[in-house]
Amino acid sequence: MNVVMIGAGYVGLVSGACFAEFGARVTCVDKQTERVDALRQGRIPIYEPGLEDLVARNAAAGRLSFSTDLGTAVANADLVFIAVGTPTRRGDGHADLKYVYAAAEEIAANLVGYTVIVDKSTVPVGTAREVQRVLQKTNPDADFDVASNPEFLREGSAIGDFMRPDRVVLGVESERAEALLRELYRPLNLIEAPILVTDLESAELIKYAANAFLATKISFINEMSQLCEKTGADVNAVAKGMGMDKRIGNKFLHAGPGYGGSCFPKDTLALNRIAQEHGVSSRIVEAVVEVNASQKARMVAKIREALGGSEADKRIAVLGLTFKPETDDMRDAPALAILPALVDRGAEIAAHDPQGMAEARPLLPEGIQYCDSITEAVTDADAVVLMTEWNQYRGLDLQALAKAMRGDVFVDLRNVYERPLMQQAGLRYTSVGR
């Protein structure tokens, strides 16, 4: 089976490599010549655990290739996946679909024989219908079907999510399209992965609804963390007690500086816009967005209070910049809201991140010091702020850290540590909701 993946970014590259691992012949097409050249040379443009080995193995086996020539690739394809970016459109919160429709036009002009065109990008309800219209208008004689196959990949564990999914969602309208997609995913039959076959609109909405619900859990526990701080309760205990209820579950109930990344911020805004367009209330999701923004601002106030009311002229060591561990993704990371606010009030920032510093540099204010080691970052610091819970930060030598610092403030925005440990090291400890 010949598969074309339009877009060799995060979703396209991971999905393409995994389909190749399933045994399909996959061509990842991207307009960025530098990216394609790098991939051909075995250089991966994103950090995702296990991806480099997966790409190398399947490229060496001849099942995975990279190209800028969309026409040739599409002409030989059984399935063409659209995995281009759908960023938030400036000014109105809508998902920007110009790359999706541009890809559809180019695909249509090169179709040969029956082909299934699949939306893999996260797109608003109705996009598949519009892609269908674009294809028909551009090439009225083409023999094709349009399908929706949303991705549910968590950055940092994307390969495992693809290979052992909770579910595969197929939005289809014909038996031919369903049969081709089922054949592509047939290796998952061995682990009895659930496959949900539904209509186009439901498949599109499932992705948004799932992400909005997970974002809701995060914002809910962050609101509870505020109440815990006022009442003397422990948000970790509250979350654990909630999570023991099987109807709720313990995932995404971790208080912190707010959600970020490529999905939750973008998809909650887009879902609100979709609801508005259809005249439907979306008050819960609107509140989720508001709570997330306020949580980031609250973290700035928390750091300031821990420093005695002012961060001016204070050296703050920041451990972690990316929105979560095991990724170099800085999109909507809490650090992008928190650090500029500290710098504006005169703080000196020394930052360390295992993978995200190159991505962070153009996004954060000038003057931030990027450190090659944890020791360099914390030396002479008045305060340490643990921003992202990378494994490297979970077992810090607190005694050595305290000796290297000038001050004694440790602000743990991920609740990694316990207060007694910090007190033993002579550190004044601040966390979230405890």
State the gist of this model.
This protein is α/β, with parallel strands linked by helices and 434 residues long. It is 43% helix and 14% strand.
Describe the structure.
This protein is an alpha/beta fold and 434 residues long. The protein has three domains: 2-197, NAD(P)-binding Rossmann-like Domain (Rossmann fold); 208-290, N-(1-d-carboxylethyl)-l-norvaline Dehydrogenase, domain 2 (Orthogonal Bundle), CATH 1.10.1040; 295-430, Rossmann fold (3-Layer(aba) Sandwich). Helices cover 43% and strands 14% of the residues. It contains 17 helices and 14 strands. It has helices spanning 10-22, 33-40, 51-60, 70-75, 98-108, 127-138, 158-163, 175-184, 200-231, 235-243, 264-277, 283-306, 334-344, 357-360, 374-378, 398-404, 419-424, and strands at 2-6, 25-29, 64-67, 79-82, 115-119, 144-148, 168-171, 195-198, 315-319, 348-352, 369-370, 383-386, 409-412, 428-430. A six-stranded parallel β-sheet has the order 3-2-1-4-5-6, with helices on both faces. It has a six-stranded parallel β-sheet with strand order 11-10-9-12-13-14. Strands 7-8 form a two-stranded parallel sheet. The protein is globular and about 75 Å long. The model has no long low-confidence stretch (mean pLDDT 96).
Widest sheet: strand ordering: 3-2-1-4-5-6
How is the biggest beta sheet arranged? Answer: 6 strands, parallel
Percentage of helical residues?
40-55%
CATH topology type of the largest domain: Rossmann fold
Given the structure, what is the number of helices? Answer: 17
- Quickly give the CATH architecture of the largest domain: 3-Layer(aba) Sandwich
How far is the first residue's CA from the last residue's CA? 54 Å
Structurally, the number of domains stands at 3
What's the shape?
Answer: globular
Mean pLDDT over the residues:
96
Helical/strand content category: alpha/beta
CATH class of the largest domain: Alpha Beta
Extended strand count? 14
The portion of residues forming beta strands comes to 5-15%
- Uncertain runs are none
CATH superfamily of the largest domain: NAD(P)-binding Rossmann-like Domain
Rg to the nearest angstrom? Answer: 23 Å
